[in-house]
Amino acid sequence: NSSLAHSGHGAASSITAMPDGLTVLREQQLLQVETLGAEEAALCEEESQATKALIEEHEAAEKQLRSELVALATEDREDLAMSPLAQAMREGTPLDDRVAVQMSEVMWEAYGFLSEQQSRLEIVLRERDEVQARLTDTLE
Q: Are 84 and 99 contacting, i.e. CB atoms less than 8 angstroms apart?
């Protein structure tokens, strides 16, 4: 009987030891979950900061492009106002071959300028779409 009582006591001891081991394992798992949560929060904050920086950079680039466009448009208007073609039109002078040639040149310059602006606009739009896609990916 005493050996029976002793073996029964050993089984009870191992049963009580099992919950302690499971408790320790559960605590370790909870610590790992907390650590992973903290790492994820840090990564999300880092991505958020990077996204904000990209937005600010994009806005600054758009602002700079707008100011460059305004400056170029102002220069072109001033150049055009000083041209012999503009002077002839203001004075009501009939157009001669020289003025017609200059008009053609001005139109080709305007075409070139507008083509360049169109190219710049397409680049900005492409960059905007890329930033928007990155923001969407970040937010998902």
A: yes
